[in-house]
Give the backbone structure.
Amino acid sequence: MKEVSEKVMRNMIFEVLHVERKNLRSKAKTDQRMAEELAKIIVDYAKMSV
């Protein structure tokens, strides 16, 4: 398994935090929907690092 670079990991963390912060303000997404969106972000970044 290839190790994810620190830059990619940091970008992913910032994007996840941004999405969480945006959702905390609006409460637009349920926990399930939020988990699905975060999983999609993580998968997208994993594909980019390959």
Summary: Residues 11 and 45 are 9 Å apart (CA to CA). Residues 6-49 form one domain.
